[in-house]
Amino acid sequence: MTVNDRPAARGHRTDTLAIVGIALAKLALNLAFAGRYGYFRDELYYIACSHHLDWGYVDHPPLSLFILALTRWLLGDSLYAIRFPAALAGAAVVVLTGLMARKLGGGRFAQILAALAAALSPVVLGNAGRSFSMNAFDLLFWALGSWVLLSILLDGDDRLWVVYGLVAGLGVMNKYSVLFFGLGTFAGVLLTTQRRNLARPWIWIGNAASTCI
After folding, report:
1. Confidence of residue 5 (pLDDT cuts 50, 70, 90)
2. 199: containing domain
3. Separation of alpha carbons 60 and 56, rounded Å
4. Vertex 146, ends 70 and 190: CA angle to 5°?
5. Which residue has the higher pLDDT, 104 or 126?
6. Which of 57, 62, 92, 205 has its CA 20 to 30 A from that of 9?
7. What is the DSSP string of 98-152?
8. What is the CB neighbour count within 10 angstroms for residue 26?
9. Helices 160-174, 201-212: inter-axial angle, 10-degree rounding
10. Tens digit of each residue's pLDDT (9 = 90 or more) over 164-173
């Protein structure tokens, strides 16, 4: 690192701390109210499913149920316990949103504004912390997939297609709606100059990785 790079690195650390602080505040807000209301009806269904772990159910994939079973084994069945992973996923969405704003060239104000917008979004507040459901992790996989995709497009590292494939594969194991994200990515690649990726091996390796999960 050169002398000129040091102020930028310190600035990035300060920006990251601000983003993480907003995410932790969002996490604390969700946890503060996690026990105010009883079990949501879907939570009771998920708890019942977590007693009978399998690789698939009639109406949803298995990943969120494995997370719930592990949570119940480690922390118990209280409202605070079973809603903690969902709230944690929401906090991660806030961090990823701020980092995506940075990757797109936004300064400190843009990063903080993006993180605040995500943290205060009714969708993130409600689906990622109010109750346990696969929707909380669905938001996380979409955000993580978007961050990886931006890294591929802006940083030019084709090897990240493998990471994208793994994220997409795990996302589908949580909720089938991630298939729409993959379809949109494919259409975006095919209809733009990014179609050059189709002539390189990494995107196909990533596709294979997603189907192996």
Report:
1. low
2. 5-212
3. 7
4. 130
5. 104
6. 92
7. HHHHHHTT--HHHHHHHHHHHHH-HHHHHHTTTS--HHHHHHHHHHHHHHHHHHH
8. 26
9. 30
10. 999 999 999 9
